[in-house]
Amino acid sequence: MENNKREIAITIEDLHIYYKDIKRFSLKSSGLSGFNSTVFKAVKGISFEVEKGEIVGICGKNGSGKSTTLRAIAGIFSADHGKIDLHGNSISLLSIGVGFQRKLTGYENIFLSGMLLGFTRNQIKEKLDEIIEFSELGDAVYKPVRSYSSGMYSKLAFAITAILETDIMLIDEVFSVGDIKFKAKSYNKMKELISDDDRTVIIVSHSSKTLRELCDRVIWLHDGKIKEIGPSDEVVDHYEAFMAEE
Amino acid sequence: MKRFFRDLRKYWDYIQYETRASLKSEISGSYLGWIWLVLEPLCFMLIYTFIAGVVFGSKTDYFPIFVFAGLSIWNFFNKTVTSSVKLVAANRDIVTKVYVPKFILLLVRIFVNLFKMFVTFILLIAFMIFFKVPISWNILWVIPIIICTIIVTFGVSSIFMHFGVFIDDLVNVTAIGLKFMFYLSGIFYQISTKVPKPYNTILLCGNPIAFLIKSFRDSLIYCSGVHIIILLAWFGIGIILSIIGIRTIYKYENTYVKVMRG
What we know:
CATH topology of the domain at 92-166 in chain A: Helicase, Ruva Protein, domain 3
Number of helices of chain A: 8
Helix content of chain A: 25-40%
Largest interface: A-B, 36 and 32 residues
Number of strands of chain A: 9
CATH architecture of the domain at 92-166 in chain A: Orthogonal Bundle
Order of helices and strands of chain A: EHEEHEEHHHEHEHEEH
Number of domains of chain B: 1
Radius of gyration of chain A: 20 Å
Oligomer: heterodimer
Strand content of chain B: under 5%
């Protein structure tokens, strides 16, 4: 990396996220006993910054708060404490099947998903052919999504989010999509997207290969806290050693 | 509130597209398709006409139209409120994966039901021509009445939508409440003549749907004007409810996803 200071794309300061257990009480149980609010702390005070154009991986075992952090950055829920600053960048969480309506065709779902991600109809139209081509669906794109195999479903979802580009992309383990051929293709597409110097990417993954090959830095989350943050190979080595012991 | 209009503009395209898509996906599943949009209210009209006219011996002018007009407004209100309670859960796939202002989901439902209401209106016009119902300029009152209906419905639904996320029992409560309201709204009887003296006025002023249905019929079928002050009052209450609803949803919508995890 160059030495001159680059623009910061994401700033996270002392992020806390709690799941309060007052969830979905029914009238009967809440009336007398009051709220027995057990608080589950999913993320306990993490801070980091991501530079513009940087690719950061997040690893950690199940339940360490990876996906929660990612969703908080995407704005799906708010921090209970601390701050997330995106410095005005557009953001998308690359995940499977945003807002798909199963009875509608893939073609219509491309528009629905795209609009939910904040694109206008014209922007989607421009990219439409590219999406359809990348998804390898061919004429099946005009058939209802409910008739798709799970592989086709994932391919379409991946194609939509991969081709409609935003400044910041958040990726939650999507490399296990489709057959081997498509996997390789989506991996390469990911590489291509990522190699764009202006695009900031955060990847959550269990795959050491992905983390090592794609990321500049890796953050290792453990029990809602940052255990280690640093160059990919170093952190992934430690993480692997740790997981082998468990 | 500024945020409301900004989000509205931002997601306007989506609302339109999703409305069309929802209608299409509802229709595409059934054999008769869009015919159901006409057939369903028509059948209910026949049932209520039969029960009220034959069983209870009701005598009202243009009775089928009378019932039909009531049903079209009622169905809009009923369907929207009912779906609003479970709306966030029903859109789980969207809500857990992308940020969308939650009232947008409600607006989609409103437009879907609005479209259905307009389909029944077409039918209503056909009936009126068939029965040769006289009309007057008072029919123009229909427009403010419908606007008022939409606003009141939005206000009520937005509040139900918020609490529906947290309270499971709300489904049962609203089902009972709405059933009660159905009978209190005079869909197949005339409140002003069938309900004894002080109560009919109370009902017509205090139950917005009863009032709106009555006004709708008055202007449409009976060539008379409407009670402007009460209409304005409900218009105002509707706006206030909507503002409360929108504010509450904005304030708490970020916790909805967390609650749904359980």
